[in-house]
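Troubleshooting: if your tokenizer reports a length mismatch, compare against these two reference records.
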Amino acid sequence: MSYYYYNRSKKYTEKRFEETFDLSESNTQTFTNLEDNGNFNSMWAVVNVTHSVSNNTGFFTATAASGRLQESINTVSGHKYYLKAEMKTDSNQVGLRFAGTPLIFPQGTGEFEVVSGIIDGIFTGETTLRFQDLRESGWTQVQVRSVMVIDLTDIYGAGNEPSKNDFDSIISNVNDGEWFAGTVEQRTPFAQNEVVVYDGISLKSESKSSNKPLYGRNGVCFGDSVTEFGNYPEVIGDKTGADITNVGFGGARMSNHPSFGYGPFCMTKLADAITTGDFSQQIAEKDAGNGDDNTETLDRLMAIDWNQVDFITINYGTNDFASDIPLGTETDNGDTTYFGAINYVVQTIQSAFPHIEIIFVTPAWRWYDDNGIDADSTPNPGGNHLYEFVDTMISAAQKNKLPVLDLYRTSGINKYTASLYIPPTEEVHLNQKGYEHLGNRIGAFLNATL
């Protein structure tokens, strides 16, 4: 393994172990921003927003759920794309994404923030890059500028892409950290398995390589809105080296759900669909007409070859708790109780695909409501606490001889640390720091377990 230092001010490169060589030995890398109108020379296409452009900044205010700016862009399925922008919003429910992929959220400080993330391309051909407001009401103005989309797979090759943190640092040295359109060249010694120092900042490559414990393995993350709208599956991929697919569906439960647009996306119904190949229920209800369009996520789910999947994580329970689903007993098998739903899912999936390892992930701690009431001390209307759902998942996993990660008790998220991880207007959904924290915890558990 080689270790290099690069300091632009001194104009030389020094190899550790006291061997020196000329800067010309480092690589010249080409970086292309696929979003030519990222500085808003003109307004993007709009859906359900009022909008304007001024000083290379796009302004928009949603007028209905899922209001957004969007711009057509060409992607390649399976490629990894680095997305970056500056956003000014007072909400953490406004984010950046490709159609059908998880959103990258800001903190929502009311000041300009840099938001960035790595997203897997799910289409080959034209898709849309979106700034999307998930709020149902109470919309406020959002400002966006300096948008960048960079195809990391095209630059580094499949499996060698740097992590988000590494590329944040790399791109900060390209074009002196300024936004650019088109293509620029930058001399850079970054390569897989190297530790690089740019102007004194150490960058250890987190690119997926053979030294990652789960390199070459394929995983799928099931869950509710915490999974769908968070980037923790991406963080799991960075930490483990595995290729991860996010198939979270907001509002879904482990057990049954009677409402149109939600029932087919609960875990018991998904288990039926993936083992039979019959997604007719999901297709019929993929767009519930309430702003929650699951078309892209469903397309991603239906495209999975389950014979190539090595493991899945299942993270449900907070909606079962909030909806007063009965806990059930270990002899239950079906979708009317929480214990029964877990038993049913294990039996259904592993009978059809015995090679797939199932890892259960409990809900993390949450507020009971947005008035600062603690879920530890407050039961649901049926008299059950969230920790009882956690304990039921643990018992069901143990009954089925499967690993389970108790995030409720080990994530470090509690009423004293909540301000670090949960926005003040939220009960259960996390901010970017919270999702990264969850991804690191789950990734470490997977590395130690699989």
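Reference record two:
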Amino acid sequence: MQSAAAASTTYTSARNWIVLLLVGNLAIGIALAMRLSRIVSRPMNQAVRVATRVVQGDLTARIEATLAR
């Protein structure tokens, strides 16, 4: 019966590690997705603001191009 208890302990330990890794990777994935969405959305919002000004007749509106780092 010791082997059954050892197998149960091994199973529980492996299951806990898998759940921990799954939750950790999910958190990392969400953080990376949020970071990527900010990198894309900030310049897009600036472009929309400039386009709105141009539509309103302000042809002096400018977009500053920068490299994302």
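Descriptive notes for reference record two:
- The first helix runs from residue 2 to 55.
- The helical segments are 2-55.
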